[in-house]
Each structure stands twice: as C-alpha cells, then as structure tokens.
C-alpha cells in the first residue's frame, strides 16, 4: 500500500494495486508518420493524427509532478508511452509524497513543473492565486465538455475560468460488508436510508454490533466523520443545499448541517451499533481508519462505511468481489431512485503553455488516455464517460465505482471539506468531529466549526 499523504480526499490514501505491464498496449516502435494516404498513423492502439496540429514536438520534454508514487506510478508512466511514441515528447515523471505542500512552494518560487496532478479544487484555487497556472487550451475544453459532466468541469474552474481537466476519481458513498454473511442471514442490500437503519436494527437484535468505524489518521484524525456528515448532508438536504453549505452561503451551524451530523450520529454515536470487534463508541477515535473495517473478516461487525480506495487495506489474499469475502454496496439515498454520490478526484493542471505541454494536456483529457490507463491496472476509476468499463483491467470494486459515476441518475458532489477553506476543511472540521465522537454535542460541534470559518 502506498500512502500518498495523510488524508483520503484532501490527501487521500492511494490504492496499492498490483501494477500490470503494458498488456495489450505494447507500443509500436515505428516512427509516427503516415502509414497510407487514407490511414492515420498508429502507435499501439492510438491515433497519432490529433497531435499533428501541435507541430513538430520531437525532442521536447514535459515535466510531470504528482503525489502518485511507487508502486502506483508504474501504470501511469506506461500510459504515457503511446503519447511519447506519437509525438517524440519525453514525459519526465516525478512522484512526491509531500506533493501537496511542495507544489505551492514551487509555484510561489517560480519553480513549478509543466504539469501537476492536483488532488482537490481548494488546492487548485490556491495555485491559481499564485498567478502561475495556465488556462486550459481550447482542445482540452472541448474534450472536457464532451466526456465529463458539468459538475466535474466546475471543479476545475476558478473565478469563472477553466484551468484543469479531471483525471481520476474515487467514490466515498460505499458500505463494506460480507456477502457470505448477508446470504447466510438472508439480509438484503438496502436501497433506501430507512432500509439501512432497519438492517442495522435487525443485526443489533441478534446481539451483534452491526457497524465498525475508526477515525484515526495521524494529524488528520477525524476526517472519516466529515465524510459521514457530507454523505448525510447530500442525502437529506440535496445537492443545492450541499453546495450552499460548502460555499458558506448557509452557516455551518444551520438546520441542514445539524440534521446531517445528527443523522450520522444515529450510527456513529449509537452504542447498540458501534463498534463491533473494537470497543464502544469512544473506541472509534482511537482506531485508525485503516484497521476499522477488518473486523468484518472475523465476523465481529457487518458494515463499514468507507471509500473505494479502502480495497487496498484488506488482509492480503482477501477476495474483494460480489461473491467474495468482502464487497461494498452504495450508501443509499432517501429513495431507491436517489443516487447521491460523494467522492473525490484529481485534476491535470498546467503551469506552462508550450505546444508540447498543450499536446500532453490534450492526451490526458481524451477518452483514449482513459482507456489506455484502464487496461494497465492501478487506479483506473474515472468519471470520463468515454471509459469502456467492459474493457478495463478493473477490480470488481472499480467496476462498481465506475457504474455509479456513469449512472445517468447519479448526482456527484466533491468531498465538502476539500472545498472548504483550510482553516475549516483540514483543521476545525477534523478536530471538532473528533470531539463530537468522544462526547461533544452536535450543537457545540457545528457552532465551533462555524466560529472557525474565515471572516
């Protein structure tokens, strides 16, 4: 497992999937040129034609800076080879676990890379504020309009200007469970919030704590509570109110956010529900999020709400599949037709506008790159509508995430604390959430977070 940084979302845990070689995408070593009057030049499975408009790029270099480190970098580096063979451009890859602090330092010092992969819109806005980020070229804008929903484009937009195309995504609105246990007990996967609570009550009636949870994450302890609250805010109040809350157009301590935290509390602060195999409710604060789901494997709890990237945390050899030892289901909405999806993502951000940089931005924004990458393994989840689920080297949990992201009824919203000012989203929200788990009231919690909001 590779830890990109402390906190999933703002600094999310990267899935440490086994890296595949360029299986099925072996790049032809032939020079990129016309292979016939009516036949476009090909490199492996990609068409080189679209890159001719950027001019002769042979011998050029594009520096690429990211928090995606070994071993997950392998699939990304291999995914760039078709572009390199088409254009003659070399992509200089640099992975750094300290990316999220160092990218700001480098941008302010005038030492920014050509391309950076930015993992949250809040950080993008800070970078734009340095005056070093370039607006996306028209070719990238056209691809984003074609392959992504408007909400995704909005997350790459700052002050009305579009800068960054989406790259990858993760889904947070998931509940992990044991398919065998469900089958043995004739439990059904819930399709509404009411059904979820009834399932929890049914499990508790058998004398078992249905849920397990943990919020420990070093300096970022508390962030899993923020995800619970965001999921409930999106479900109870809807996407428009969620957006107002995130932008502070309604106070943090107003009725909707209070109700969302109380709804999370029906599970997280309920001693009848928590904390199977780990202790009482207060044990949630001292259990790491990495360890919190593992009691499912021992049969000590049945349900764990955690994002798709948690697949990397199961004991080696665990089968993660719909008919395996563990799998996940969508955290339901108020009705079976509601599909509110909370998640995160990463964005391709340029600090240079040379032709070779624009060409690489274009490649990264295409369905071509999304499908090349999906066949190489690693993190393959993307909200790119051109990604072919049936052809990707996907795990079952990846496929579930992709299906949710591509569901026409899905309403996607980015992790709220990632969009809030740092004083709130990566400080007061985490700390007050931890105090809430250990006994602080909902009212005091939301009041304290509201007081921390920058004036």
TrEMBL record:
Respond yes or no to whether keyword Repeat is given for this record: no
Instruction: Give the UniProt keywords, A-Z.
Output: Signal, Transport
Q: InterPro entries under this entry? A: Bact_solute-bd_prot1 (IPR050490)
Which range is the signal sequence, renumbered to this chain?
Answer: 1-30
Could you tell me which PROSITE patterns the record lists for this protein? PROKAR_LIPOPROTEIN (PS51257)
Instruction: Give yes or no: UniProt keyword Zinc-finger.
Output: no
Similarity annotation = Belongs to the bacterial solute-binding protein 1 family.
Q: What is the protein named?
A: Alpha-glucoside ABC transporter substrate-binding protein
Q: Which organism is it from?
A: Virgisporangium ochraceum
Lineage in the entry?
Answer: Bacteria, Bacillati, Actinomycetota, Actinomycetes, Micromonosporales
